[in-house]
Design brief:
The longest helix is centred in the last third of the chain and has 29 residues, at about 95-125. This protein has helices spanning about 10-35, 45-50, 55-60, 60-65, 70-90, 95-125, 130-145. It is an all-alpha fold and about 150 residues long. It comes from Pseudoalteromonas undina. This is DUF2069 domain-containing protein.
């Protein structure tokens, strides 16, 4: 998938991408299994309730397939839902400890993998987030020039 414009990935970048994908696929598989095998408190579960928790995870799927660096960066916002859910369930449902710990492991792996993959891959591609300090200096210079 490398083209003339896209630099090759370093081994550390590949490791972080694999960690992110491991966490992502783990969450995609874990959530429906958890909702299906662990009976709900009120005893009834609909087909829709099995797949509603998966919908936010499907948002970054296209970007992961296309290997979009920005998708890995913003996917962290999505994975935080599952991390918070895992921490909440750790407190609220201690009898489901194995499922909760799996969710936390997968969410943490995805978070760490996405964070560092986006950072390393962005550096390899020459992507740069401008610092606020630089922006303020340019704005100040532009304002002084117009005076």
């Amino acid at each position: 998938m490398n083209t003339a414009n896209t630099p090759a990935k370093k081994p550390i970048t590949v490791k972080f991408q694999r960690t992110a994908i491991f966490g992502y696929v783990g969450l995609l598989l874990l959530l429906p299994l958890w909702m299906y095998f662990v009976p709900p408190l009120n005893g009834n579960a609909s087909f829709v309730s099995l797949f509603v928790p998966i919908i936010p995870l499907l948002l970054p799927l296209r970007g992961f397939i296309k290997d979009n660096t920005y998708t890995y960066a913003w996917a962290n916002f999505v994975v935080m839902l599952y991390f918070i859910h895992g921490l909440t369930m750790l407190w609220a449902a201690p009898d489901e400890l194995i499922w909760v710990l799996l969710e936390l492991v997968f969410a943490s792996a995805m978070f760490v993998g996405c964070t560092y993959y986006a950072r390393h891959r962005g550096q390899e591609q020459g992507l740069k987030i401008r610092k606020l300090k630089e922006e303020l200096a340019e704005e100040k210079a532009a304002n002084e020039y117009t005076k």
